[in-house]
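Input (LAS1L protein):
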Amino acid sequence: ARGRLRPLRTVVAWRGRTEWDQVMVGLYCKDSRLQQEALDRVSAWKSRYGPKMPLAVDCTAELVRCKVLDSSGKLRSHELILSYGLALVRFVNLITERKQKMVNIPLRQLASEVDIPIWVVDLRHELTHGKLPQLALCRKGCDVVLDWLRKTYWSRQLGNNLCEESEEEDEQEGTEANTEMDSDTWE
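Output:
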């Protein structure tokens, strides 16, 4: 018995696949009440997991939080632009940060490598260095980034089929599917 190796276990903040799936579905549903419940669960995960929280989960939660605030009608358009803007800037910065530490590569090139639309990087640039864009563009950027996160991270975890269902909807709407990136980029 001593000579046998035990399989390595990974400690995560969520209780299991069921909880993970519930949060993923909650974040991506259209019901703001269910989205808020999923955001509360992500906050609990973050309190347990701290800095080990996957960047994709954190970015998704921030973007969904913006959508929930937007649907509440409690914020003015300028406040919503700032909220969406911070979440979008943070997303682009965080997904490119790991590769930027290795070599100084332009953000547009990094985004292209992971199939993020160049206009999202340009939006991030405007939010950071230029005039604030229109709220509609921030909303569209949020939707595109959330879709990218769903396809490249959430749907790939634990063999979930959420991506397949949504891709059928995307094809009906005439949108292109994004190429998936290696999961180790997020870990």
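Residues 160-187 have pLDDT under 50 and may be disordered.
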